[in-house]
Amino acid sequence: MYTNRSAKLYAAPARCGRLSTHTLALAALLALACSAALAQEPAPQPDATAQPPQQQPRDEGPPPMRYLPEDVRHRVEAERDLKDRAKLGMLIAEERLDRAAQLAEADRFVDATAEIGVYEAVVEDTLRYLQNSGKSGKLRDIYKRVEISLRSHVTRLETIRRGLPERHGIYVKDAIDFVRDNRDLALGAFYTDSVIREPRRPAATAAAGAPAGGNTAAQADPEKKPDQK
Question: Is the whole-model pTM more than 0.90?
Fold first, then answer.
């Protein structure tokens, strides 16, 4: 038989269930309210004092390669005459300097230094061809023209270097040293062929009848006596 106390005990679970439902509904409403409040908060502003991330340079590349492209090789190998070969080599070298200057002005620094590598290869090939010709006595004027061209190239390379960033300009500085060395080579070949050396002379004239370089004192000529009758 159920008493009043028993009835209250059995009624308690139903009341607890109703309280749990209300609690969950209230929690859901609170969660929605918090989400709405967070959505309405302004986004945090970036710190004006923060340093921007460092970007890696996009055009930084390896040192330029010294090589002859196929089209350049065909042009120079088609010319056999020494004078014309040297003239063509200097012409192609100047073409490459022109292209390097144009690329540097367009901020295409890697391509500009690549042209410098081709330029060096053309200069090297021209001088090697002259050296291997075996006609040193006929190259005086040719070497002189090559030296004059290389002298003007130094000035042009300096102008190109000033328009490049330091990490690329160092390659052009190496090219300037390369040109100066080859200019000295051309000058040396020119003066070797053009300077006429005087024949060596003995330090003192040897006495008559004495060996050259000997220590024998010179003897006076004997007195000639008049013919005796």
Answer: no
